[in-house]
Specification:
Blueprint lengths: L10 H13 L5 H29 L14
């Protein structure tokens, strides 16, 4: 279930969002912002993976002996 959220943006940012909706193939401002948030979430996952890769490269991991160790 979706919830409504109201945000305030600068006039410059509003113009940029309006232009993105007009020219970027988004059905609405809400769809544009949802796309931005999905991209942000993807970036967060990528940052987490990269952090894990650095820890693995440094040997800063613990070995898992069974699936119970994942909890």
């Amino acid at each position: 279930m979706r919830q409504t959220m109201n945000i305030s943006v600068s006039p410059k940012l509003k113009k940029a969002i309006d232009a993105a909706v007009r020219n970027g193939g988004y059905a609405s401002k809400s769809e544009f912002l949802r796309a931005i948030f999905r991209a942000w979430e993807d970036e967060e996952v990528l940052r987490s993976v990269r952090k894990s890769e650095r820890e693995i490269a440094k040997g800063q991991v613990s070995k898992i002996k069974s699936l119970k160790d994942l909890r």
